[in-house]
């Protein structure tokens, strides 16, 4: 992809992210003038964005190019990194690493990772992208003593793969809590949405093959781009499940 084509894509995607599903971007002629490009170049880019599920065309007098953010599905049944489930759904996964640091854990993190106040954690904050569009903001923490040198690794892909390949750790299970929250101004800016837009907050504690807590994370997924999926098994009437695989709690 040439530099000018990539710049055009970025500009259109930025306008899509700033809009709302169903909103009209404009007609093909209007958009070609707005982006100062030829209609043939614009048509090729719109075709790629339509295939990716970001826009759709409507023919007719009231037609035009409309925003149609495709939703990604996050499974609640598997412990899998964001790049893997995006790739499985046909998206090109991307990552922006915002910050990394070694820091002291707060009380919530201490409890989650079963560490003390004098211990340290490795903190990684990243924005996840689907076809170049921000989809989630994640803040992950790991026991510093367990993963020396982690912050020096290439952190643009799956950290779970790094933990398995470089540290011999295999994620065995994760306890997750899901809440609906509103985006703060800073979160909205990073996710290219309006402040107070709906977000899904997924708080997760991940355990390794020895049932030791290895990760505590807080992931914020865009509510307009994400749906949750879970597979449950029926055991027949009157048969009690030994473990509650998923729960939903209502806040008073």
Automatic annotation (TrEMBL):
Molecular-function GO terms, alphabetical: DNA binding; DNA-binding transcription factor activity
Keyword hit for Transcription regulation: yes
UniProt cross-references to Gene3D superfamilies, sorted A to Z: Chorismate lyase-like, Winged helix-like DNA-binding domain superfamily/Winged helix DNA-binding domain
Keyword vocabulary terms for this entry: DNA-binding, Transcription, Transcription regulation
Family matches, as InterPro entries: Bact_HTH_transcr_reg (IPR050679), Chorismate_lyase_/UTRA_dom_sf (IPR028978), Tscrpt_reg_HTH_GntR (IPR000524), UTRA (IPR011663), WH-like_DNA-bd_sf (IPR036388), WH_DNA-bd_sf (IPR036390)
Signal peptide location: none
Keyword Transcription regulation: yes
PANTHER family documented for this protein: MANNOSYL-D-GLYCERATE TRANSPORT/METABOLISM SYSTEM REPRESSOR MNGR-RELATED (PTHR44846), MANNOSYL-D-GLYCERATE TRANSPORT_METABOLISM SYSTEM REPRESSOR MNGR-RELATED (PTHR44846:SF1)
The protein's name in its UniProt record: GntR family transcriptional regulator
């Amino acid at each position: 992809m040439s530099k000018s084509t990539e710049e055009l894509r970025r500009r259109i995607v930025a306008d899509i992210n700033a809009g709302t599903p169903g909103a009209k971007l404009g007609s093909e002629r209007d958009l070609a003038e707005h982006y100062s490009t030829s209609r043939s170049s614009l048509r090729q880019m719109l075709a790629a964005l339509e295939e990716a599920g970001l826009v759709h065309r409507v023919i007719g007098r009231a037609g035009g190019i409309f925003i149609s953010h495709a939703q990604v599905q996050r499974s609640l049944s598997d412990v899998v990194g964001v790049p893997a489930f995006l790739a499985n759904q046909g998206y090109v996964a991307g990552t922006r690493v915002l910050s990394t640091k070694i820091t002291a854990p707060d009380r919530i993190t201490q409890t989650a990772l079963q560490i003390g106040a004098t211990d340290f954690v490795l903190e990684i904050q990243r924005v996840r992208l689907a076809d170049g569009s921000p989809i989630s903001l994640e803040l992950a923490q790991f026991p510093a003593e367990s993963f020396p040198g982690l912050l020096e690794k290439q952190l643009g892909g799956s950290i779970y793969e790094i933990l398995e390949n470089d540290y011999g750790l295999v994620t065995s299970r994760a306890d997750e809590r899901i809440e609906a929250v509103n985006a703060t101004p800073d979160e909205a800016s990073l996710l290219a949405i309006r402040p107070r837009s709906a977000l899904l907050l997924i708080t997760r504690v991940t355990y390794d093959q020895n049932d030791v807590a290895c990760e505590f994370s807080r992931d914020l997924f865009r509510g307009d781009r994400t749906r949750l999926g879970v597979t449950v098994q029926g055991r027949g009437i009157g048969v009690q499940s030994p473990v509650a695989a998923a729960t939903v709690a209502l806040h008073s």
